[in-house]
Amino acid sequence: MQKSYLRLFAVLLLFSIMTFTTSCSDNDDDHNDANKTDLLVGKQWYPTRYEEEDEGKVIDVTTSWLRDCQKDDYLFFEEKGIFMSSSGNIQCGDNSGADLDGEGTWSWKNDNKVLSMVWPIVTIDQEVLSLSATELQVRYEITNGPNPADKGFLVTTYNTRN
């Protein structure tokens, strides 16, 4: 009788250990990283809000950064590490650089906390502040004015449309 209790205890203990070790795996971050990629790719991301962070102040600069002709511009990320930018159907047409159609490569950096986008002439590393099925918010350093030491941050919010 006592042996059967010991066997039962051993089986339950073994089952508990197996359950605990499989539910607390080391690859939870890999799963979350895959989810980030799944959330990012295959969608058109439209810029909807711009905010400047400078010396602890946050200023909404959407009206000065997002012109009417840019409201249909979007980024599209592919799973294989390529992104495309489109200036949409409404063209600014004023040689301001606002009409940017092209492609580059993208990747995750720093444990998938940074979205790195490589254009033919520039690389932009953006801290991902939030990412959901419908909203992406990134933050990156900018230079304010002609003095390279005068730096701040730009927070850009993108949304998908149905």
Automatic annotation (TrEMBL):
Keywords: Signal. Residues 1-25 form the signal peptide. It comes from the Bacteria. This is Lipocalin-like domain-containing protein. It comes from Dawidia cretensis.
